[in-house]
Amino acid sequence: MTAEKLPTDIRTGVLRDEELLVKARGVTKRFGGLVAVNNVDFDIPRGSIVSLIGPNGAGKTTFFNMITGYYTPTAGEISLDRKTIAGMRRGRIRSLKPHEVTALGIGRTFQNIRLFGTMSSLDNVLVGLHVHLRSHFWDAILRTPSVYREEAAAREQARQLLDLVGLLDRQETWARNLPYGDQRRLEIARALATRPKLLLLDEPTAGMNAGETRDMTDFIRRLRAELGLTVLLIEHDMRVVMGISDRVTVLDYGEVIAEGSPAEVRANPKVIEAYLGRGAADQAAPPAAGASPAQSSSEA
Amino acid sequence: MSGIDDPRIIEAARREAPRSGVLGWLANILDAITGIPGKWRESFRRGPVRTVALTVLLGLGVAYPILALYVLAPFSRNVFPLPLAGDTDLVFMLIFATMAIGLNVVIGFAGLLDLGYVAFYALGAYTAAFLASPHWSGLSFVLLSDVPPGFPGIHIAFWFILPLAAIVAAFWGALLGAPTLRLRGDYLAIVTLGFGEIVPVIFKNLVGVNFELGPIKLVDANLTGGPLGINPIDPPNLFGIKFGAVGGVAPVYLAMVIVFVSLLIARNLEHSRMGRAWAAIREDETAAEMMGVNTVRTKLLAFALGASFAGLAGSLQASYQGATTSDFFQFSTSILVVIMIILGGIGNIYGALVGALALVYVDKVLLAWIGQRMQGFGRSIDNDAIAHLNPASFNFLIFGIVLVAMMRFRPEGLIPNRQRTAELHEAPPDQAIGSAAVLGEAAIASEAQAEAIAEEVASEQGSASQPDAPPRDPDGAGP
Hints:
heterodimer
C-alpha cells in the first residue's frame, strides 16, 4: 500500500477520524517541575509511516512511553482505533497497562535493545505471542492436547516471523549471541508477534552502517506493504526519516514545533533552529539553502 | 499476516498432536510412557555413560528403601563409609525435596525471592491437622477415612487433604502476593520474611480466643491447639496400608510418588507459555510487560503455584508424623530450603531435588552419626570436650560455610541451569563487549555521517550554510 492509494492525502494531514489509527489530543507529561511533553496533538493515519524527530531530550521517548501505557499522561487523551489508551475516567487521567495496550494492537522495539538475552530467538518471539495464547496453567500442568496444538501452532508462527526477518536459521541461538543487526531484527520479529496494528520503532537504525541502514529502511517499507502495518518511527538519521516517512512531526522542549511532509519540515526555520541554533536558522532562511542544514542536522 | 487460526498452521499442529479431548489426553500420556524406551535409546546413543549412570542411580534410589531394610542394614557398618538414611530420614528428605522443587518455581523460574516459604508449609500441615484429627471434638464428620463413624472430630481421607492443602497454600500465596508483588527485589523478600514469621505465630496463639461477631460467638475457643499443636493426626491410609511414622517403607514410597509428581508438574510448567513468561520477567520485566505479559498476574501465579508445593509437603509431614506444632515452622526452615536450591542450582528442578536430598541427609543423618563417632572417640581418650561436642547443633554454621565455598567456587550450583551459569560467568565481560561493539558501530556510523556532512558542505560552498552555533545534540547517533 502506498501513500497515494490512501483515501485522503496523508501528507497534508487533513483527515477524517476513521482514517486515524492513533489520535492524541493535548497530551502533557510532567515529571515534578519538568514538562517533558507539553500539550501535544498528534495523529497517525492508518497505513502511514510517521516519524517523530527532535533533539535529544525533546520528549520523543516520553511520548512513546505514553502511547504504550508505560507512563500515564498528566493531561490529555490518547486513543488507538477509537479505543481509549489514556484519558479522563472517573475524575482522573487513567491509562491502560502496557500489556493491555499490547493486546489492543501496539508492538514496539527499544532504543537500547531489550531482548531476553539467555532465551533462544524462537522463545523471544514466542513471548511476543504470549498475549494471543490461551492455555492456562492447569493445561500446562496436565499437558492437554489443546496445549500441544496451541504450542505447535505458536512455534510454527514464530518460525514464520523469524523467516520474515531472515533469522530462521538462528532460531535456537540465544538472543544475546546474535550480531547487533540481527538483534534489531529479532526485536522487530518479537514486536510483530504481538500482531500489532501500529508498530513503534525507537531508533531502528541506531548504530548501523549505511548498508544495514538501507536494508532496514527497505524492510520497514516491506512491512507496511505486506502486512498493512502503520509505523511510528523515532529516528535520528535524517536520511532514513526523510526517505521513508509520509509525515514528520518535530518535537522540541516537549512541544510540536513543526508537522508535515518531509520536504515541508526540512524547510521549516523553527526546525533548523531547534537542531542547529538560531544563527544557522537565520542563515538558512533564504529558501534556496533551506533544505540541507536540517538534513545534516543530526550528524553534527 | 497469518494468525494462529490459519488453517495451514492448524493442520501442521494437528500432525504434531493428533488427538483431542480426554481420550486424546490419555492417549498422549500412553504415548509418552511407551515412548520412554525410545527416548532412553536416543539418550544412550548421545551419552552412554551418563545415561547408564543416571538410570542405575534412579533404579537404586527407587529400590533403596527396600534394599536398606533387607540387604544393606546388616552389613552397612562394614561395607559403607557413610551411614544409611532410615525411613524417617528418607521421608523428610523427600518432603524437603517437594518444597525445594516448589520454591524453585518461585525463585528459580520467576526470580522472586521468597524468604517466608515456611508459612505455606505450616498452612499445609495445619490443613491436614484440622481435617484429619479429633481436634474439633464438638463435630463428627468422617469421609472415606478408616476412622469409625461417630468418632469425634473431622476425619477426611488424606487423598482429599493432599490437593486441598495445595489449594489452601496457593490461596494464601495469592492473597499475600496480590499486594506485595508490585514490589521488586529486596522489598518483596522483606514482606515474605514477615509473612513467614506471622503465620506460625498465629497458629501458636489462636488458643483461648474470645470473639463475638453477630451469630459467631467464641468463648475461650481453642482454634489451633496453641503451643501444644494438634495431635493425633490420622495417617494416610490406602486399602489398610498405613503410611504413618510406623509404616516402614510405605510412606517413603508415598513421598517418592509426591516428589515425582512435583517434578513432572514443575517441568511441564517450565516448558509452557507460563514458564516462558517467567523467564522473560526474570530477564527484563519492563520488556516482558511491553510484549504483552501481564507481569503482576504472572508473578502472582508463580508465587501461588510455588506455595502449593509447600502445601503438599506440609500435609504429608503432618499426616506422616501424626502431630504438628507451630515450633516446627521456623524461619530457619525457610532459609534451609533457599540454601537447598542455591546448592543444587537455582532454576534447575533436578538441582533442587539433589540439593534437598543432600542437605537433609547431612542435617539429619550425617551430622548425628559424626556426633556419635566423636563422642565415642572422646570417651575413649577421656576427653570431655570432644565427648560432649555435638556437631548437629552446628548445622547452620556448616551450611553457611558450604554456601560461602559454593559461591566462591561454583556459584551456579551442583546441577546448574544453563541461563544462570551464563549470567553468573559471562554477563559482565559479554555485556562489556556488547556495549563496546554498539559504541564502536555507533562511532563508525557517525564517521560515515561526518563524511556525508563534509560532502554536503563541499557541494554547497557558495551558500555558506555551515553552522557556527554548536548543536544541542552532540551524540545524535547513539542511545
